[in-house]
Amino acid sequence: MPGKPDVALLVEDTAGELQRLHEENRRLREAERRLSMLVELTNDWIWEVDAKAVYTFVSPRIRDFLGYEPEEALGKTPFDFMPPEEATRVAAAFVPIVEARAPFRDLENVNVHKDGRRVVLETSGVPLFDEEGRFSGFRGVDRDITKRKQAEAERARMQEEIIHAQERMLAELESPLLPVAEGVLVMPLIGSVDKRRAGRIVDALLAGVSARAATFAIIDLTGLRAADHAVVELLCEAARGARLLGAEVLLTGVRPEVARTMVELDVNGVRTQSTLAQGIRFALGARRRG
Known about the structure:
Blueprint: H1 4-41, E1 45-49, E2 55-58, H2 62-66, H3 70-73, H4 84-100, E3 104-112, E4 118-129, E5 135-144, H5 146-174, E6 178-181, E7 184-192, H6 195-212, E8 216-226, H7 229-244, E9 248-252, H8 256-264, E10 271-273, H9 276-289
Parallel strand pairs: 7-8, 8-9, 9-10
Antiparallel strand pairs: 1-2, 1-5, 3-4, 4-5, 6-7
């Protein structure tokens, strides 16, 4: 019959199409299985949001990151898991990304774990578009960088402590205060003194006089290379401050240029001695007489 070959051919084509579809479905199921396995095995939290930033897919890794089940996150936005001030900050940074329909990388954000602790995430994503090319949301990953940020903060704290310790050591070296006898302190100044160092000298001198109940504080200028009007004026202010604390300040080893500056400033009431040794003898003698 003339129709039989056509029917056989149709049956053969249909069987071939069914076989092709069956094979395609098998490959799709295998791809889905592999993707599901990758999602389960990766250390990152994989997610998708729609155009309004509402979660439409959340991988199980959210349990490890924030303590929530995937179903608890669906229908919420990433901002719902952030402290209010952080949500405001991140939303402001996210607006231009959405407007540009652009991919983004390593956007740091702080989230609140279900148990209340803070978790720092690093978020990256790419925009999604539907078949008609309309923007439909983002797909991306979150990485937990809490431990890294804690380590960075600890390193910064230790660095800050080192800097403070160095500053304290430098201050002590810049303005050493030596007790040479009961009630007598000596501060030898070496090198150049600018206004900043002079301020430290004043602070150290007054603190030492107060702490040791000193009656004499000797500032030895023998090793001083240079000091301008402002520095000399600060040293004289230190002398007046020490006097208010019950101590007399002696300046020893005064160089001609420093003496000239003192004359120009019309400094009165600051006793001077030629050398440190004379200054110490004067102070000890005054204490014995007192």
